[in-house]
Specification:
The complex is a heterodimer. Chain A is mainly α. Chain A contains 15 helices and two strands. Chain A has a single domain (52-324), classed as Orthogonal Bundle (ABC transporter involved in vitamin B12 uptake, BtuC), CATH 1.10.3470. Chain A has helices at residues 18-23, 26-44, 51-58, 62-76, 84-100, 105-129, 134-153, 167-170, 179-196, 199-209, 211-216, 221-247, 258-268, 280-299, 304-329, and strands spanning 172-174, 177-178. Chain A has a two-stranded antiparallel sheet. The longest helix of chain B is centred in the last third of the chain and has 40 residues, at 291-330. Classes of the chains: A mainly alpha, B mainly alpha.
């Protein structure tokens, strides 16, 4: 190595041009994967390229993705919430109980959102006030929240929802564009702005990259984290409204295992599980990838459990391949 | 004093209070043969929690244990259905080996590619579950397809205890010896306590984590056979969600999720606590639907208490160090 390469003149003004950075980005890689899956699906099944079928396919991921947006922020900030699916169960149970005594649709929505917020606040207080590790706290509240649903419902179910409540999960805004898909797109926009265009978003990255440095630079770390837990709880409430409305019934086992699918979606979207890195566009594309894979394989009569193998392989593969590539080149 | 304040003593006390409370109304619950039954029922949870403890000690987490258990169980059941004459000893070896291999897959991904363990095991969890479906086509292996030797083994009685309970005891004792008397056992603590310092003392962090996952996998494989043989049925969803109960047992037992802190005794008590609660609910006539909420509350209470303890300790150490420093300055 000659020292000449280290002279100031040879240091470029910018390390990578924006175009080069985009080409090497995680989001582009995911987009290529998504397009490849789309083409493969089109070739594999004659029923795939149909507006109504594709519209149905979006239901596979819209509800999970709504939670994934908030979860992405939480994971970027270095925390995690494994209780989201349990919050869905509790919020759905609360709405079902209210519906059975004749509460109308606006009241049900308010109850769903309030339950989500309360659960999020509970997690947030335990993590930020008591200083407990979020993974343990939310494994605990996951049992607690769903446990309350089981205590209330046992092996029963709530079914008597008002008929106009069905709109959130079954309604269409325009042609094949469902209400859920519109909500998904809207929330994607809101979270994009929140994470990438506001001070709040910058503080989320700062906390995830160096918790202590963030504290010393005047960021109210505990408050930001508390807000993120609130948001995750709120989004779980929103997802609970959509899912309950779509299914039209509530059982305590509603949404079982979703916490892991949501985390998978977030990680697949390029968010570092260690915190500090990730983007909303990545999560959006990951949502499409997961939805397309599940739907495409479903059209080919592949059972759901086999699809989960693909999701698992994808999760490990997309993280392992770049690392293998780096090791191979080194 | 330190003994009284320790987590293990606290948890042991809580278990005793729980037993006394139950016994005051239902003396039959603490009858020796019922306690044996409770312990036997808790053994699979205990064995899995022991493996999980080692993994958590090294700052990792293994969410694939329940899927590993189910896959090994299915393989054992299908093996038995296909070759009824195969001795149980061979099946045991197959179970432990298969479980260990699945643990090694986790361990290798964590070690060589340094992918966070939660991501790796989240992935392998769904993959292992999916493989069960692929090999079984979603079909069940039922009791009538299994040989008597296969299903009878965990229930066979040795010195008044079922073999299943003996496996729980053996695993607990073996793990205690391993963790306190072998270099590998100490390495688990070193890696979790301070990975950088561990490297400087010549311990490979990745390799230690690899062995932790292998151990956890082998124990999960062992449980796979025991579980399937005990309940005499194997299907895709057995022990679904059990991985979280296993983590819960560790957390209640005082294993710090941040790694490097906790004892095997704590894990044993944590598993027993959950096992007693689970078995006591029907006895005290509380709907079993309460179990989930109770174990959730127990986790939150336990982690809160553990946190208090460790905070107190930190302060005391500082004060002593401060005292020593000021003494040194005056002398």
């Amino acid at each position: 190595m000659s020292d000449a390469s280290l002279t100031p003149r040879s240091i470029p003004d910018r390390l990578h041009s924006p175009a080069a950075r985009l080409l090497a980005s995680w989001e582009l890689l995911l987009l290529v994967v998504a397009v490849a899956i789309f083409i493969a699906n089109t070739l594999a099944s004659p029923y795939f390229l149909n507006a109504w079928n594709l519209s149905d396919a979006t239901f596979n991921f819209t509800e999970k993705a709504m939670i994934a947006f908030a979860m992405a922020l939480l994971i970027i900030a270095g925390e995690i919430d494994l209780s989201v699916a349990a919050i869905i169960a509790l919020a759905s149970t609360a709405m079902g109980a209210a519906a059975s005594v004749g509460v109308g649709t606006p009241g049900l929505v308010a109850i769903g959102l309030a339950t989500g917020l309360t659960c999020g606040a509970f997690n947030g207080v335990l993590v930020t006030r008591m200083g407990l590790p979020s993974i343990v706290v939310t494994i605990g509240t996951m049992s607690l929240f769903r446990g309350i649903s089981f205590i209330v419902l046992g092996d029963g179910a709530y079914r008597d929802y008002p008929s106009d409540f069905a709109y959130f999960g079954q309604g269409y805004v325009f042609w094949v564009i469902s209400f859920e898909f519109v909500l998904f797109a809207l929330l994607a926009g809101i979270y994009y702005v929140l994470l990438h265009r506001t001070n709040f978003g910058r503080t989320v990255y700062a906390i995830g990259n160096n918790h202590t440095a963030a504290q010393f630079s005047g960021i109210r770390v505990a408050r930001v984290k508390f807000i993120l837990f609130l948001l995750t709880g709120l989004m779980s409430g929103v997802a609970a409204i959509c899912l309950t409305s779509r299914l039209g019934s509530t059982r305590p086992s509603i949404g079982t295992g979703w916490e892991l699918e949501v985390v998978t979606m977030v990680v697949l979207g390029g968010v570092s599980i260690l915190g500090g890195a990730g983007s909303i566009p990545g999560v959006v594309i990951a949502a499409f990838v997961m939805g397309l894979v599940t739907f495409g394989l479903g059209l080919l009569n592949v059972p759901g459990i086999v699809m989960s193998i693909f999701i698992g392989l994808m999760l490990i593969g997309v993280i392992a391949l770049p690392r293998l590539w780096k090791m191979w080149r080194a | 004093m330190s003994l009284l304040k320790s987590r293990e003593a606290l948890l042991g006390g809580a278990i005793l209070v729980l037993l006394v409370l139950i016994a005051s109304r239902f003396p039959g619950f603490v009858a020796p043969d019922n306690l044996v039954r409770v312990f036997t029922d808790t053994s699979p949870l205990l064995i899995l929690a022991l493996g999980q403890t080692v993994v958590i000690l090294t700052r990792c987490i293994d969410l694939s244990v329940a899927a590993n258990l189910a896959l090994t169980g299915m393989v054992c059941a299908m093996l038995n259905a296909a070759l009824p004459g195969l001795p149980v000893a061979v099946i045991l070896v197959v179970a432990v080996a298969l479980g260990a291999v699945m643990g090694m897959v986790n361990g290798l991904l964590v070690w060589t590619l340094s992918i966070p363990s939660i991501v790796v095991t989240l992935g392998t969890m769904t993959i292992y579950r999916g493989i069960i479906f692929l090999i079984s086509n979603g079909a069940w292996v039922n009791a009538h397809e299994m040989s008597d030797a296969f299903t009878g083994f965990p229930r066979a009685s040795i010195l008044g205890l079922p073999v299943l309970a003996w496996f729980g005891i053996l695993a607990a004792v073996g793990m205690m010896v391993m963790i306190s008397r072998t270099p590998l056992g100490r390495a688990f603590y070193a890696v979790g306590g301070n990975p950088h310092a561990a490297v400087y003392t010549g311990i490979s962090v990745g390799k230690t984590q690899f062995w932790a996952f292998t151990l956890s996998g082998a124990l999960a494989g062992l449980c796979g056979y025991l579980w399937v043989a005990r309940y005499a049925v194997a299907y895709v969803d057995i022990a679904g969600g059990f991985e979280l109960e296993v983590v819960a047992a560790c957390v209640i037992g005082g294993i710090s999720i941040a790694g490097g802190a906790g004892t095997i005794l704590g894990t044993i008590l944590g598993a027993l606590f959950l096992g007693i609660v689970k078995n006591a609910l029907p006895v005290v006539d509380v709907s079993p639907f309460w179990q989930m909420a109770i174990s959730g509350t127990a986790i939150i209470v336990a982690v809160t208490l553990n946190n208090r303890n460790s905070k107190g300790k930190g302060r005391i150490i500082l004060r002593r160090a401060q005292d020593q420093a000021s003494e040194g300055a005056t002398v």
